[in-house]
Amino acid sequence: MVLKFAAASLAIFMSSAVFSAVTLTVPDEIKVLAVNDKEVFGNLLRSKDQFKVDAGVNTLQVRYQGYYQHADNSHDVLKSGVVSLQTPALQDGVSYKLALIDAPKDFDQAERYKDQPIIGLYDQNNKLIVQQAGAKNQKSWLANTFSDSSAVDLSTANKAVPAAQPAPVYYVQAESGAKRVDIKSAQDQQLIQAWQNATKVERQKFMSWLAEQSN
């Protein structure tokens, strides 16, 4: 168990590690703009409605986009601001999907929904593992960065999550069912789970190990 704690702690500092790919399915109503601050080309990382992303923790920049045809043959395309969603650690070889939570059923609902969409990430068993609401009335903070003509490296750009964006909600699967946990990051989630599953002796050993690392 001490080794598990050590591995979880070290994982926080290994964001640059290379991971195997997992499959992410995305509906038409959600547009993926970037993965880990790298712009997504429509013909490179996706095949129809599927993306390949690294296993492990990923940050997805997405937006809600709805197309509505009216009775007079006119149409509207509604777009939300960018929603930044940080996934928990995605498992190699497992399929996941994005979906709208409380999706609008008509144009009037969609006009309100675009002001603060809620994006959910589901595992291959259709269980919700994290949801992220957008910033209320947020303007597209990446609108001037993304274009259709060139790829953009956002590593040095302003990539902070908008202050108005609510904290993500992660769902931890337990024997008694899913429980809701509000935490700051997927790495925190891993450490919390390991700590909760540890015995008193294992926790003491881990604290001793941490003390040794600081020497």
UniProtKB/TrEMBL annotation:
<dbReference type="Pfam" id="PF09829">
    <property type="entry name" value="DUF2057"/>
</dbReference>
<comment type="similarity">
    <text>Belongs to the UPF0319 family.</text>
</comment>
<protein>
    <submittedName>
        <fullName>DUF2057 domain-containing protein</fullName>
    </submittedName>
</protein>
<keyword id="KW-0732">Signal</keyword>
<dbReference type="InterPro" id="IPR018635">
    <property type="entry name" value="UPF0319"/>
</dbReference>
<feature type="signal peptide">
    <location>
        <begin position="1"/>
        <end position="20"/>
    </location>
</feature>
